[in-house]
Structure formats: C-alpha cells, structure tokens
Amino acid sequence: xxxxxxxxxxxxxxxxxxxxxxxxxxxxxxxxxxxxxxxxxxxxxxxxxxxxxxxxxxxxxxxxxxxxxxxxxxxxxxxxxxxxxxxxxxxxxxxxxxxxxxxxxxxxxxxxxxxxxxxxxxxxxxxxxxxxxxxxxxxxxxxxxxxxxxxxxxxxxxxxxxxxxxxxxxxxxxxxxxxxxxxxxxxxxxxxxxxxxxxxxxxxxxxxxxxxxxxxxxxxxxxxxxxxxxxxxxxxxxxxxxxxxxxxxxxxxxxxxxxxxxxxxxxxxxxxxxxxxxxxxxxxxxxxxxxxxxxxxxxxxxxxxxxxxxxxxxxxxxxxxxxxxxxxxxxxxxxxxxxxxxxxxxxxxxxxxxxxxxxxxxxxxxxxxxxxxxxxxxxxxxxxxxxxxxxxxxxxxxxxxxxxxxxxxxxxxxxxxxxxxxxxxxxxxxxxxxxxx
Length: 437
Fold this sequence. Notes:
The chain folds into 4 domains: 4-175, no CATH class; 178-240, no CATH class; 253-303, no CATH class; 315-395, no CATH class. The protein is 44% helix and 11% strand. It is globular. With 437 residues, it is of the alpha+beta class. The chain has 17 helices and 13 strands. The strands form 5 sheets. It has a 5-stranded mixed beta sheet with strand order 6-5-4-7-8. Strands 1-13 form a two-stranded antiparallel ribbon.
C-alpha cells in the first residue's frame, strides 16, 4: 500500500549536508545533534508508551475480573480516574481502549510493543471495526495524530462492523453544538461558540440588534464594537431572569485582600475574581461599586470566618468551598453537591472554611448515617498537608482510614523500548485502503 509521498525532513537534511562541503563541520554537527535528539525523544516516548501500555493492560484485567468494584465506586471510569490520577475524559479513554484490546489483537500487539502512543491507540480503538486492525495499526505507526484521526473518522468502513455508538466516529461529534469559555494566562476572558446554522442565525440576529441599539445611543461617545454588543446581550439575559436565587448564586464574586489593602505602600484596591485572575486596581474598584457583586474579604489568605454566629452557610461561602474542593471530596462526583460541617454546628463546630467540606448527596447522607466520619483540615492542599496527620481523612465506623490511591512507583530500570515517530510526509487520502485481516 502506498500512503505517503515526498521525502522526509531527515533525508533532505542529509542530502543538503552532502551538497554543502564548504560548511561541512557545522552541518555535520547539526546533523549529529539532530540524531542525538531523535534518539532521546525515541527513548522518552518509548518509556511513556510502555507505562501507558502497562496501565491499559492492567485496566483490561480489572474490567475482566470485576475487581474495580467497591464501595463508593460508580463506574470503571471513576475507578481509573481515582487510582491513576486522571481526568474524567482521559479515564474514559483508557477504559474504551482496554475494552477493545481483545477485539483488536493487532492493535494490542503494536501498542504493547510501544510502537503507538496512547493517543494513537485510542484513536484506532475508537474508529476501527473488528477485523481491520492489522492494516489500521500498521498505518497508525506511520501517520501523525492529525492524519490518523482525519483518515479513520472519514473512512467508509462497513457500517455493521463499526464500534458501538459510545465510540462513534468524528462524524457524529461534528453535529454537536459546542462552546468554551474561560480566562487566559493574560487575565483576559475568552468565549468561543460553535453551533449549527439555525442557532447561529438566531445568535447573530440578537447580536446585530444589540449592536444597532448601542450605536444609536446618543450617550455613547466611544466607538461601539462587536464585543460590546455580545456583552450587552448577556447582561440583558441575566437581568431578565426572574429567579433571585439564581441571580445570587451566579453573582460576580470579588475577593479583596484586607492585609494588602491596609499596607500603606499598596496603591489602590487589591482583588481578584472568584476562580479568575487578579484584577487591576481600577477594575477592582469598579466591581466593588456594583451593587450586584458579592465581596469576600480575606485575611492571611483565608476568608474572614463567620464562627459560631450562624449555622446557615451563606451562598458566597458555599461557592468558595465547592470551588476549593472541585467536587465531592470522597468520590470526586461533580453533581448533586452539598456542603457539610465536619464538626456539626450543634456540637460546637464553626461555619468556617476549615470546618466545611463538599460531599455529593449520597455521601452526605452516608456520613450522617455514621457509615463513615471525616477528620482533618479540608483546606490543606499542599503536599505536606495531603500526606501529614492533619490532612482530610475518611474513617470507617471502626476508625480505620479508608484507603487512598497508591502513590506512583518509578520503574527499577528505564525501558529499552524505542518509539518511531510519524514519517512527517504528506498523506494522500485517496491512496488509503484497509484490507480485512
């Protein structure tokens, strides 16, 4: 099968070296360094691939014998994310690949030989039907990730032989509406929207309407841009919400550092957005003038506590604790979350950040049913706190620490596996043809 054309960059470099005798020393030094780097990359990538292959093999064994099941474990994905310290998305990919190893023996062999990265192997497992993995795995060893994904997602495999709907190809994903938002490293906010034409047309009409209205406002002396129109649309939507509870839960929260504010040499207000960047003093002063902004006054890095003054956890403190914990501290769930007093208020516990922890509804009920109890400081997030006696711990009714995920153990000796990267040549899609095994 002929898949690629054009010579590789290394071959071109060697050709140039032969054709440039006048600068032979420098060219040869560059070539030697390039080959040295290639060997180091191959060794490092091979070591990573060996670790990933061992992880997937272990997960395949656990899936087969069911040893992933345990109290509080919702799914294999949950178990993998907990044990290996992976995000939910990556854990799901590991489970998908592990489940298909028996169906795709050629893929399993190539991946086990460290000739494919985890991403390449998962891409094959996601798109390749049973009986085609011989050619597809071979193709994957020569293709870049972009080439591999583009080719397999568009290749016309027999529909009856395709993987289950859970592992459907890119074609199905392209129909989904997507959006992303968040703050960048520079502290600025970015929003991206990718929807179908019908929804996009409605959004575009609303933005154009807001833009025209802002331009017609005689009080606006500065030039009005498209960003102003989009922000105006969101502002009108938020103001029109009849639910006061939703408005309070999603109000802009600004953290103010009282210690730095009291320092005479600190000009302006020092603050930052909740889960966001540090604010310029002028922006901090602007936001703290807004009546719908929630202020959190911090001292020595912690919010000023409410102590025993109330058992009710205010919304701003609830949001702080849930943001700190990132989900249920017992199982990692991010749905149906409650905030729990570690030492109950009726037993003398304060309504302070150090006495509050996020639990899912299931485990919140479990701790009040005495199925387990919680001790330690949930605000300790540094390495020493996570391993020391003051770290947050969950104890069973007998006082035994419910086990944590084991710490990674480095290999006794580096792997000798070497990874051969993609050829770097241009792919000819019309020349790709996969024969059944």
